[in-house]
Amino acid sequence: MALDRAVLLFAGCVVLISVTLGYFVSPWWFALTAFAGFNMIQSSFTGFCPAAMVFKLLGAKEGCAFR
After folding, report:
1. Which of 15, 23, 28, 47 has the most CB atoms less than 10 A away?
2. What pLDDT score was predicted for residue 21?
């Protein structure tokens, strides 16, 4: 799996899991959704994505967005 797709998959899973936990467990889980959204916005401007760095260390092939 390419790095770009791994990051998008991870971000989507974090958002869906945190929304589910926020609805069923505690509204404080919505903070994780906000953090994921903020991280996606800042990475679109700066090109720095911590998740991309971790996936790169785990051996994901480079994609076109996170080089």
Report:
1. 15
2. 98
